[in-house]
UniProtKB/TrEMBL annotation:
InterPro entries the record matches: AB_hydrolase_1, AB_hydrolase_fold
Matches recorded under PANTHER family: ALPHA_BETA-HYDROLASES SUPERFAMILY PROTEIN, HYDROLASE
Record protein name field: AB hydrolase-1 domain-containing protein
SUPFAM superfamilies linked: alpha/beta-Hydrolases
Pfam families: Abhydrolase_1
Domain AB hydrolase-1: 95-345
Domain of life: Eukaryota
MF GO annotations: hydrolase activity
Length: 371
């Protein structure tokens, strides 16, 4: 029988089973294709401790969740640096949670989480500038080349906590939203109480992760997309119901969750003026911070959860996140893809509640001890 201090050991757990993972050093390497050239990278050995219970203890009965009356979700707009930013909110008491979406998504992607988490929390979900129903300024028309960066979005997130939430907050993030949350916590550590990362983007197309001989080709391709009609043509081909559905069916393991409603949630804001420019700006953005650069700088607790069937951010690579001191747990979500909060909210919502509750309790204990 294993006895572990959850606050000082790394653990890997499955969200559907209390059976521990094999307690051996994990070795893994990965390959990815850039410009039809395969390049192999090796990651450091990863050692994981054994834990049997955290996820099982925090999971709640799915039917009980369904029988709970949903909290009303409201929508509002916030003026940030002269731009209109949409956000949604629900709940009137408890610690504040700010939900941060991934690439091409928006605050509606948390529609299955907000009303559930609002029971006992003040929940906010924001559209990052350039996405959803927030403004989508063209940086080149403003004489800027770096509007859509993780630093910009991190500033937006921190300012949102200051101006709207008016409190410290836990950041609950999916995909590139995870990089935004980490960057925000590094820039203003006094704002973030903890970060829950769902399939954080590992930024495999980052320039630092490409072989030297492929970098000129990548830059040429990015220039082609940004500065010619090829990019707009590509966007038009992607911004259709069938294309969006096909893309979602790739990243959702349970394709029954790819509904007409979900397709509309993702596609509709993408048809607004300026959306194509934002799309092209980001897919040509191969600089900025990497998760492995930010995690060592984060002072708050971090929990990483990963859909094991994610085809875009493979879990074997994601496990490397557990090696950082700031990461207290790595939780495996069985048979779930890249967007666990929407595909498997019955797994994600209880994990979020448990993560927040124990750190609120821990903070209260530390405050009491100080007196």
């Amino acid at each position: 029988m294993y006895k572990l201090d959850l606050w000082s050991h790394k653990t890997i757990k499955s969200a559907s089973s209390s059976i521990p993972f094999n307690n051996k050093t994990r070795h893994f390497s990965f390959q990815f294709l850039i410009s039809n050239t395969a390049s192999r990278f090796s990651l450091p050995n990863c050692k994981f401790s054994i834990s049997n219970s955290l996820v099982d203890n925090c999971l709640v009965d799915g039917d009980a969740q369904k029988n709970t009356p949903p909290f009303e979700v409201k929508t509002s707009m916030w003026n940030w640096r002269g731009y209109s930013i949409r956000y949604q909110y629900s709940g009137s008491s408890g610690p504040a949670l700010v939900l941060v979406h991934g690439f091409g998504a928006n605050s509606d992607h948390w529609r299955k989480n907000i009303p559930v988490l609002a029971e006992g929390h003040r929940v906010y979900s924001i559209d990052l500038i350039g996405y959803g129903y927030s403004d989508k300024p063209n940086p080149r028309e403003l004489g800027q080349n770096s509007l859509y960066t993780f630093e910009t979005w991190a500033c937006q997130l921190n300012d949102f906590c200051t101006d709207v939430v008016k409190d410290q907050a836990f950041f609950i993030c999916n995909s590139i939203g995870g990089v935004v949350g980490l960057q925000a916590a590094v820039m203003k550590p006094e704002i973030c109480r903890g970060i829950f990362l769902l399939n954080i983007s590992l930024r495999m197309l980052h320039i630092k992760k490409q072989p030297w001989y492929g970098r000129p080709l990548i830059k040429s391709f990015q220039s082609l997309l940004r500065n010619t009609g090829v990019g707009k043509f590509f966007f038009k081909a992607v911004a259709t119901p069938d294309s969006v559905r096909n893309i979602l069916c790739q990243c959702y393991n349970d394709t029954s969750q790819v509904t007409d409603e979900l397709v509309d949630i993702i596609l509709r804001p993408g048809l607004e003026p300026g959306a194509a420019d934002v799309f092209l700006e980001f897919i040509c953005y191969s600089g900025g911070p990497l998760p492995e650069e930010l995690l060592p700088q984060v002072k708050c607790p971090v929990l990483v959860a990963w859909g094991e069937k994610d085809p875009w951010e493979p879990i074997d690579l994601g496990r490397a996140c557990a090696e950082f001191d700031s990461v207290e747990d790595f939780v495996v979500l069985p048979n779930v893809g890249h967007c666990p909060q929407d595909e498997a909210p019955h797994l994600v919502n209880p994990l979020v509640m448990s993560f927040v509750a124990r750190h609120v309790k821990r903070s209260a204990s530390l405050s009491s001890a100080a007196f």
